[in-house]
Amino acid sequence: MNIHVPNSTTVVACLGGPKTAFEHRTVTPPSAGEMLLRLRTVGFCGTDLFKLDSGQAKPGMVLGHEIIGDVAALGPGVHEFAVGDRVAVPHHVPCGACVYCKGGSDTMCETFKENLMLPGGFADWITIQPRAVSHAARLIPDAITDAQAVFMEPAACVLRGVERADIRKGGVACVMGAGSMGLLHLLVINAARPDVSVVMIDPVADRQKQSLAFGAAGAAEPGDAALKVVQRASDGFGADAVFDTVGGAALLRAGLDLTRAGGSVVLFAHAPDGQKADFDLNALFKNERRIIGTYSGALAEQERVFDLIVSGALDPTPLVTHTMPLDDFDVGVALARDRQALKVLFTPTTDAIAK
Fold it and tell me: What pTM, to 2 d.p., does this model score?
């Protein structure tokens, strides 16, 4: 199979702050160990929005990392894939040898922080660097759709927190926030730990109803109502683990109040820069509660999530509310920013499809 490769690719380039613009950049043949992908779909992640709105997206940067693509060309030495293969590829791969990797903190590895897709996922053509090709790229079975497979990376991030929380068999988990990542927590926990009951907390009544439709054991608004629902689900003990998908000191305090003695609060979301936590230390110490930070997902979680998707245990596609070409990038960002969308997926630009 041959795929025509153009000389340039359209990318969504950051201009600094929340603004972006379309640019054309040169497409070069893949070097040794690399492969060139033709984009099929790319997910818009909460981290992408955070980087745009917080000013962390520097001029010239191309965001996007949840990609599915067709192999268009292979560099010398790549034998794991063939032109035309449909693959899912994460953008981070740890070294496997440092103190962090050996200690189970592979997402803290300095090598892991390198972005292995160039120029980035919001582009029609993407070069995947050797470490991702050899260690992380996965061939997608024909029965799995792009919309399912694109969740491999974000769902792996969720699974890492779920496993680090060490929820007891038959326990209760509580998720604060029923946006796209909160609901993905619900789906991942239901798939990976079907013995665990999940309670969703969100101030919006429609999101509470949606959580119940997605399989939550209970749902409530924050405050006294949340405490009552969690207490009822846990026979009065409190949640084994609370997952904060919103971020901030107030959510941490609320999460601690919802946990049982010996329980955990898992911090999954960014807090505002410089914000300090403020809670009763004795409530943590005397009750042996834990606060766990979890950031990204490593190769092991990606493999387990991919298996859950392939087996049919995890189907995140109900979270996809909008699919549009990269031409409409600003529209998709606005939908996500205004909470009018759960998950936005982008497809190649109309110009790329026409070619």
Answer: 0.95
Q: Tell me how far apart the alpha carbons of residues 35 and 77 are, in angstroms, rounded to a whole number.
A: 10
First to last CA, the chain: 17
- Of 40, 84, 31, 35, the closest CA to residue 64 belongs to 40
Put residue 177 in one of left, alpha, beta given phi > 0 → left and psi -120 to 50 → alpha.
Answer: left
Would you give the DSSP letter of residue 236? T
Range 156-293 classified under CATH 3.40.50.720: yes
Nearest to 33 by CA among 62, 73, 88, 1: 73
CATH superfamily membership of 8-151+316-354 = Medium-chain alcohol dehydrogenases, catalytic domain (3.90.180.10)
Write out pLDDT tens, residues 294-306. 999 999 999 999 9
DSSP letters spanning 53-73: HHT-S-TT-----EEEEEEEE
- 3-class DSSP state of 88: strand
Res. 170: pLDDT tops 70:
yes
As separate numbers, helices (DSSP H) first and strands (DSSP E) second, the chain gives 13, 16
Given its phi and psi angles, is residue 113 left (phi above 0), alpha (psi -120 to 50 degrees) or beta?
Answer: alpha
